[in-house]
Write a structure and sequence with these properties.
Number of helices: 0
Order of helices and strands: EEEEEEEEEEEEEEEEEEEEEEEE
Mean pLDDT: 77
Number of strands: 24
Strand order of the largest sheet: 1-2-3-4
Radius of gyration: 19 Å
């Protein structure tokens, strides 16, 4: 989901017939148009181009093929063109609708596309972080692969962003093997990784953080102070199930603060966050038990909890990709 230039929302999903659907709604949620197309294997991102009020939908047809297809729609939902970018290395992990590892493409300040994913190494079955920069018509400007020294694999590329520092920031997770055990089940020891690269893709620095014993990232938000808000779930010390967390990083990728969901003892994740003009945050997530609960919390800019509550119970599960502040200033979507 992205916020449109007119203050509404644009969403990508599936119909009951498993076709892909792009839906444009106004600020009150009323449907303006739908664009329906046969389902493709991977929907990789939705990008708005302010210069001409068009939308780009990026997808792959097969996990075995690195080619990226770019569908361009006008502001009324009519298809303008389709282009393809035959990449050499970039392969995306499959993402379920509520999976934070679904990759987002980013529109850069020089009006190009930045796409992040993984490059599979068939020799040892590990994956490296991979990024490509494309023109809006699919011309490949460069591709880069970043080694994973010290880690067995790159578990997932979460997002890319055109950072205020002039660098591109790549945010994902790493996996160090199956080191944790609970009741006979193994859990991958994963961590949060942030890599800063320049506009040619050359690595500038990387930061690796452990929020809990094994971190599962669900979302990343660029903050007003040029930092990051990372949301997800992890195993707290002594915990037997993941607990939702919010993790704040500064503009150099350093740890600032961590907030843990007060709902303990249940599998839970904080999936998304939205920032308010005063620097505070609204975050949303879900817990599986008892009965499934949607969770919403308001956090101060310092990470202190203002309030936290469950919205609905009964096998509820948050399937949205993002939470955003209502353009009219009257709530959250």
């Amino acid at each position: 989901t992205i916020t449109s230039l007119e203050g509404g929302y644009l969403m990508v999903g599936q119909t009951n017939n498993d076709d892909d659907i792009i839906r444009k709604v106004d600020a009150r949620g009323q449907t303006e148009w739908d664009y329906v197309t046969p389902a493709y294997h991977n929907k990789l991102g939705l990008v708005q181009v302010p210069a001409d009020s068009t939308y780009l939908v990026l997808y792959q047809i097969s996990r075995a093929d690195s080619t990226i297809f770019i569908l361009r729609l006008d502001q009324n939902g009519q298809a303008i063109s389709t282009h393809n970018a035959p990449l050499r290395t970039l392969v995306y992990r499959y993402a379920y609708p509520n999976d934070g590892a679904a990759v987002k493409a980013t529109l850069t300040s020089d009006n190009h596309l930045l796409i992040g994913g993984s490059a599979h190494n068939p020799v040892d079955s590990t994956s490296y972080l991979a990024v490509a920069k494309l023109t809006l018509t699919g011309q490949v400007l460069w591709e880069r692969v970043y080694n994973n020294t010290g880690f067995n694999t790159i578990a997932g590329m979460i997002t890319t962003m055109d950072h205020a520092s002039g660098n591109y920031w790549l945010v994902g997770s790493t996996a160090e093997g199956y080191a944790l055990s609970n009741g006979g089940a193994n859990y991958t020891r994963s961590k949060v990784i942030v890599v800063a690269v320049d506009t040619s893709g050359a690595e500038q620095w990387r930061q690796v953080h452990s929020v809990g014993r094994s971190d599962f990232i669900r979302g990343v938000l660029a903050t007003q102070d040029d930092g990051l808000l990372v949301t997800g779930g992890s195993f707290k010390p002594g915990g037997v199930m993941p607990t939702g967390f919010v993790f704040k990083l500064d503009n150099q990728g350093n740890d600032e603060w961590t907030w843990w969901s007060p709902v303990l003892g249940t599998p839970g994740h904080i999936n998304h966050g939205a920032e308010h003009p005063d620097g505070s945050f609204t975050v949303t997530g879900d817990n599986s038990y008892p009965g499934g609960t949607l969770e919403v919390a308001r956090l101060a800019a310092t990470g202190n909890e203002v309030w936290s509550r469950g919205l609905r119970t009964g096998f509820s599960r948050e399937l949205g990709r993002e939470s955003v502040v209502d353009p009219l200033g009257q709530g959250y979507a």
